[in-house]
Amino acid sequence: MAKDKEYSSLLSGVSQIINEARGATVKTVNSIMTATYWEIGRMIVENEQKGKKRAEYGEELLKVLSADLRQQFGRGFGVDNLQRMRLFYQLYSPEKISATLSHISEIEDVTLKYATPSRKSQKSQTPSAEFSFTDLGLCFPLPG
Known about the structure:
- With 144 residues, the protein is mainly alpha-helical.
- It has one domain.
- 73% of the residues lie in helices and 0% in strands.
- It has helices spanning 2-49, 58-73, 79-91, 94-108, 117-120, 127-130, 133-137.
- Helix 1 (2-49) crosses helix 3 (79-91).
- The chain is elongated and about 75 Å long.
- 16% of the residues are buried.
């Protein structure tokens, strides 16, 4: 009987670790995907506007980009979703994200080791140029 209790305790402990790891994995993946969508939105806005306040050809760009992305990656990249990604970026300004990342960096000692030197040295510094997607994902904490 003692052996059965020991095994039950072992099984329970291992099961708990697996469940916690799965939950953490899902949460991390979701945060990184959220950061990915924000970054896609940033790239669309910057490509559309090229330094101007408003884009002149945004909708046509989204149609072409959508078709190419759907051909390469499948569902999830329709014009409507790309419009949402663009809006998501516009609602969460780079300044806000940079401030969040800087705060996280101070608290958790997040480093810039994942940023590539060529992107890091660019004149226009955006949060995504300075941090990895894992770091950027920290700006979008999702409930567990």
